[in-house]
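FYI - complex with oxa(dethia)-CoA, inputs then prediction.
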Amino acid sequence: MPNAVITGTGHYLPPRIVLNKELEQSCDTSDEWIQERTGILQRHFIAPGQTTSELGLFAALEALEAAGKKPADLDYIIFATLSPDVLFPGCGCLLQSRLGVENIPALDIRNQCSGFLYGLQVANALIRSEAARTVLLVGAEVHSTGLDLSPNGREVSVLFGDGAGAVVLEAGPQGRGIIRVEVGADGRHARDLWCEGPGSAEHPERITAQMLLDGRQYPKMKGRLVFRHAVQTMKSSLLGVLDAAGVSVGDLALLIPHQANLRIIEMVTRMLDMPPERVATNIQLVGNTTAGSIPILLDQSRRAGRLNEGDWLAMTAFGSGFTWGSAVIKW
Ligand code: UT7
């Protein structure tokens, strides 16, 4: 049975940088508060006209180049996002067309901050079952057009940024690549971090003038509750997958955690007794890019020379749903 090996990574961040200072003007917030409570200094926002599938395209082209592959070599596309260009069809189909390939399957994943890890599990299963040999997995978000940048939305809006990351996965030898991926969900917490509209649960239309006035088109979060669950769940999910893979925390050359809040990452790092220098972060410069978070940081870490062949790498994420996931990879 083949193993799924990551053979190429790429990312794209739109050029416009938004400093905390800029948000002070509309959000009734402060650079000091954002830095102290989240670690974030800046994030990237798209230019008018850019879309999630376009960000995904740029990341995908980089990943393909790194893998030495052409779009025509792909036989499956998986696209994780909570901010698709349109309600339907999914960004996977839009990306397939942008890449100029035809007929191969294009699957969208709607699992928010855990979307990349859900996608990794699917890609792994496809390759191991020999249903696919070369899979493109993209995580991309455009948050900036869906944030309440007034004082009402300040708790959520200061956290998020736009961006995309991508990986190419190929069939490879046993003992290398994705060793184990585990994901989970607890839908009882669906309303603790969610965005209601537009949604088919609304009558008579999916989005009404009243909904817009009430700000129900914007994400809402019970911040402290999500924070508590994120710390506990990322820790237990990661320990679970490490145990199942027979790998210890001490074996890890690098941990790539989802970038939601630097304080969450620091707490998880402490609880795992992990040396901070072996934990990758970029939230300071990109904020929370949800499904893009892990693949962007993976690509930056690889290009910075932080991963060597044979290293043990782990990833962990938690987000809306609640959903979570962790993976162990032999690089
Ligand atoms: O990626 C998906 C998963 N998401 C997460 O994991 C995020 C989890 N939650 C968090 O990261 C944190 O809870 C937040 C960053 C959202 C909030 O930080 P906190 O330290 O938990 O703050 P808090 O909600 O306890 O609020 C403390 C104070 C409040 O004022 P009072 O009631 O103490 O007067 C808030 O109104 O900070 C106020 N506040 C702000 N002040 C300035 C909330 N947001 C802001 C803001 N600027 N942007």
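The radius of gyration is 19 Å. The chain has a mean pLDDT of 97.
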